[in-house]
Amino acid sequence: MTGASDKARFYLEQSVPELQELERKKIFTKAEITSIAKKRSDFEHKLNARGSQPSDYARYAEYEMNLESLRRKRARRLGVKATEHAGQRRIFFVLDRATKKFHGDLALWMQYIEYARKQKAHKKLNQAFRSVLRLHPTRPELWIYAAKYALEVEGDMMEARSYMQRGLRFCKRSKDLWIEYAKLEMIYIAKIVGRRRILGLDENRTQTPQADMADNPDADIVKLPKITAEDINPDLAQDDSVDQAALQNLNSTPALSGAIPIAVFDAAMKQFPADDLLGERFFDMIVGFEGVPSSKKIAEHIVDTLSAAMPTNPLVASCYIWQPVAEVRATSPDFPRGLGVALDRLDSSAQRVYPRFPLLRRTIDRLMSFLGVQELDPDIRKVLLVTLKSTLGQLQMELEHKTGENGDEVAEVIEKLRSNGLHHFVESTMAWALRIWGKNTRLLTLQGTGAILAQDGDANK
């Protein structure tokens, strides 16, 4: 116990000059300094005694973080300068001791990493990444975090790829890691595309707005000129160092053409053959990158690969059906054409898919997402409502003689119908659902809620 007390006293003595300076500059009162010293003494004795826990270190670090935040606020208000790095140094000292003693505790490591990131202590953060990944190489969330930091904060895609590729050597059975690797590549492509658009590098220099209108004489919108870097700096128009051939070559590089996300998807499907849920996750992630030119090509590759491997799978069929409108906004002029293709695919796929319930369930969700768009064209809304009615009818026929575990999912459909204001569908769906799952708690709760809402509506009339 004496050794623990001596060690605690040694650490406390190191903070005396800092506390004296804070009192001298009137950032803290004498009573507050005494309270701080006592609190630190309690923590240090607890940490240096036998039986200390990770939570003791976490609380000590949290206390020092709050104290440092208060010190900065008071120093700013009083307009005085104090030792800026003393508090940060003490916090890192506590966290260093914590992670050395309890190197298996991920919560302590994450507290360390989050604090270093908040303080923009890049050297400390990189050291923490190296240490925690060496100690916990089979934790995919750590590789994902490190890779995201490398790209989003440091802008180092090579380092981000390195983290992902090393992570996959240790965690090749982690589906999340495969998805996040492909997502990281898509974020990188989106960043490059965005920068090129700002600089005007993706525009055809020989094409004019008038030529665009000539190519589409039936266009019912006015094409406005796009502002590029040449408009801001006319000297760029005379710069021959960037020619169209070079730009076309840049477009064909694996980084922009989508070859890398495709390779990641293919490798993932080799690890998880015939995994329809993983394939669907890849598809949903890719089509979420609206405005990235290569996303359509990647989505088509995913659909083609999945369809070849699982031609009758309902999840694969859902991706195939809705791919034409997956990246098109419901208010876009291209939406009606894409919707027509999607509905044709729905008709042709419905009979060959088994089981049908997952496809019908996803179709209903997709239709309701479109119907939730406020500015939707009235004619398109009518088409979607007719399709929704037909799909709900097919769902009823599919489940009429099955009393499995789909009651909660149908209840979820009813909840979404109600939240979208489709009350005429709610009543009919509730009626046949209760015939099949009359004792389902969730359905009965919804029925009671609906009755209360109806009474409130009548009272307000």
TrEMBL record:
It is found in: Nucleus, Nucleolus. Residues 12-85 form the U3 small nucleolar RNA-associated protein 6 N-terminal domain. GO terms for biological process: maturation of SSU-rRNA from tricistronic rRNA transcript (SSU-rRNA, 5.8S rRNA, LSU-rRNA). Gene3D superfamilies: Tetratricopeptide repeat domain (1.25.40.10). SUPFAM superfamilies: TPR-like. Its main location: nucleus. It comes from the Eukaryota. Pfam families: U3_assoc_6 (PF08640). Keywords: Nucleus, Repeat, rRNA processing. One of its GO terms (cellular component) is small-subunit processome. One of its GO terms (molecular function) is snoRNA binding. Belongs to the UTP6 family. This is RNA-processing HAT helix. The lineage of its organism: Eukaryota, Fungi, Dikarya, Ascomycota, Pezizomycotina.
